[in-house]
Amino acid sequence: MDFTEASMDALRQEGDALADATVAALFDRGEVGAFNTLMRHVSSSGAPLPDGLPDVAREYLQATSAPPAWVDWEEMERARLFFIDNNVHISTALSFASMPACYVVPHVAKLLSATHSLQYPSKRMAETGQFTVYLMRPDAFEAGSRFIPAVQKVRLLHASIRRHLRHDDNWDTERYGTPICQEDMIGGQMFFSLLVLDSLHRLGIHLSTEGARAYYYAWRVVGAMLGVDQEAVPESLDEARHFLDRYMIRHMGPSEEGAHLTRQLIDLYEEVVPGTFFDPIVSALIRHLVGDTCADWLRVPRTRWDTLVKAVPHLLGVLETIEDRSPLGAWALDRLGHLTAVLELSSLTRGRVMHYAIPEQLKREYGVSDAVPQAKRWIPPAATVSA
């Protein structure tokens, strides 16, 4: 697949027709409040839809109630096992690489600043973490799961943000394109898939080729369910590298919003780290994973830990050796990883289920199974040169 400036410019003008039409109808008919109230009771797939739900919402929920027909379930199971084997590392990559990567794209940082409070990045982190946990459960696509309703609500949330920013004159469409456009949705998919894999590689985590491909595939399925045009989505990791390189070259740079969001993210995680002595490791880990140029754009402070954090891959290598050679050690590390991820998510959500409601207005205050076989080790696709 060839990604050109023209093809990516075209993607900047496209939103999500189905979700956009649903949200427009709900607003035009004054039914957003009723929809949000009723949808708080719809948290698991297969549950009866509540009486009184607007017809347009009922039609949308029925049309989006199942994953794409083309899903390879064996590949999805490989992705789930890959996640189980690497859950704490994936959580680290999402927190310290994927989120800052969003902030290094100025128009994305501007959009995030306009749609949720700068003072509470924990909400977005909690939503992302909970969403990923739902995805990687064995019953994610079965009756009773929380994943499909979460996808349906996030898709409508994106559509409502597009509507608000267009109608409230808070967005320069000519300059930035459609809010949460197809190009940015695919870019986000790359941040949560390929960039996570890159970060695991940078941390020295042993990834099998099969596991890396499966993890990327799972996020392709997610993208399809979130309304991403599959005709434009990279199918392979090599194509994903080409897209991500071109996307970042087109858009990345410094911004006040990006620096502010990053500062709030650092503050959030420094609060989680016990005491103050280890606080600088948060900034050091972000800088290690996103690189000095992006870290400088985001004003990530340089610390005494910047050199020490480079030893993390060696430590993780020792732990992987224990895991590979000892079934008991593998079980213990898997349980530790699971508990760490659960505790991190619990601290962000404060034990609550995150609800993805349609905002009626935008305000700043709205603001263990068998492991994946360790066969051929995955090597990130080489960087591409943008034409």
Give a brief description:
This protein has helices at residues 5-11, 17-28, 32-39, 55-63, 73-103, 106-115, 121-135, 147-167, 173-176, 182-192, 194-202, 209-225, 237-251, 256-272, 280-290, 292-297, 305-308, 312-325, 327-349.
Overview of the structural elements:
Residues 314-319, 328-333, 335-355 and 363-374 have low confidence and may be disordered. The protein is built from 19 helices and no strands. 63% of the residues lie in helices and 0% in strands. With 387 residues, it is mainly α. It has one domain (5-64, 73-349). The chain has helices at 5-11, 17-28, 32-39, 55-63, 73-103, 106-115, 121-135, 147-167, 173-176, 182-192, 194-202, 209-225, 237-251, 256-272, 280-290, 292-297, 305-308, 312-325, 327-349.
Keywords:
mainly alpha; 387 residues; 63% helix; 19 helices; globular
Alpha-carbon distance between the two ends:
14 Å
Structural domains: how many: 1
Number of E-state strands: 0
Query: Segments where pLDDT lies below 50 for 5+ residues?
Result: 314-319, 328-333, 335-355, 363-374
Shape: globular
How confident is the prediction overall: mean pLDDT?
80
List SSEs in N-to-C order.
HHHHHHHHHHHHHHHHHHH
Q: What proportion of the residues is helical, as a percent range?
A: 55-70%
Bin the strand percentage: under 5%
Q: What's the tally of helices? A: 19
**Helix and strand composition category:** mainly alpha
Radius of gyration: 20 Å
Largest sheet: none
